[in-house]
Amino acid sequence: MGIQDTPEEWQVTATVTPFTGNKTSVRTDQVVMPDGSVHGRDYQVHPGSVAVLAIDEDDQVIVVRQYRHPVRQRLWEIPAGLLDVPGENPLHAAQRELYEEAHVKAEEWRVLTDVYTTPGGCDEAVRIFLARGLSDVEGERFEVSEEEADMEQARIPLPELVRSVIAGDLHNNCLVVGVLALTAARAGDGVDSLRPADAPWPARPFEA
Question: What are the alphabetically sorted keywords of the record (predicted)?
Fold first, then answer.
């Protein structure tokens, strides 16, 4: 079987939602501990996200640079976005994000990895895709707004991104996990051994 995470749910005696925002909310659960005591656990309830590590024939990764207010930094990231519709197919969402943020489409898609971003305080699950066979999308670019209106785009060689991650110069979760996962896959069984793009995702079940 190998090492793997397993589903488990401890008893919750009460739940309140003190804050509900536009896309996420904050929940407080009273959770029964193994010794029988009950303690409150606060966490952010999140719809889930997708991210795309899109790499071209020159081994360059598409990255975007965006201001992130909670950390007060402008971060280099890979294209990503929320699963806005419950049960939304994550591949379709990833294809949409790649188009909207990079004006690019891809012929080949694989699941690179699935992660929980901050499981101690948020239930956000992210599926990171590998996209290859890139080409520009015809027609006008998607109209962006708010932070995305100031977004920059670049193509950076994968080894340079890896070095920058290890050096502590890049911090976005999906970018860090994505470039290291692709490097590990190449060093292991190869990218063709990655899961298909429609692989099941128990953390966020979806329609085919």
Answer: Hydrolase
Q: Give dist(CA 187, CA 177) in Å, integer.
A: 15
Contact 121, 127 (CB under 8 A): no
DSSP summary character for residue 159: H
Where in the sequence numbering do the catalytic residues fall?
Answer: 148
Taking each helix axis as running N to C, give the angle between helix 158-166 and helix 173-187, from 0 to 180 degrees, rounded to the nearest 10. Answer: 120
Q: Which of 136, 105, 122 lies closest to 49, judged by CA?
A: 122
Average pLDDT over residues 181-205: 96
pLDDT tens-digit map of 62-114: 999 999 999 999 999 999 999 988 888 999 999 999 999 999 999 999 999 99
**Confidence grade of residue 16 (pLDDT, cut at 50, 70, 90):** very high
DSSP of 132-145, one letter per residue? Answer: EEEEEPPSSPPPP-
Q: Which residues contact 207 (CB under 8 A, 6 or more apart)?
A: 87, 88, 89
Determine which helix (DSSP H) or strand (DSSP E) holds 92, and give its type and residue range: helix 90-102
Of 112, 110, 109, residue with least CA distance to 128: 112
Say how many Å lie between the first and final Cα of the chain, rounded. 27
pTM: 0.93
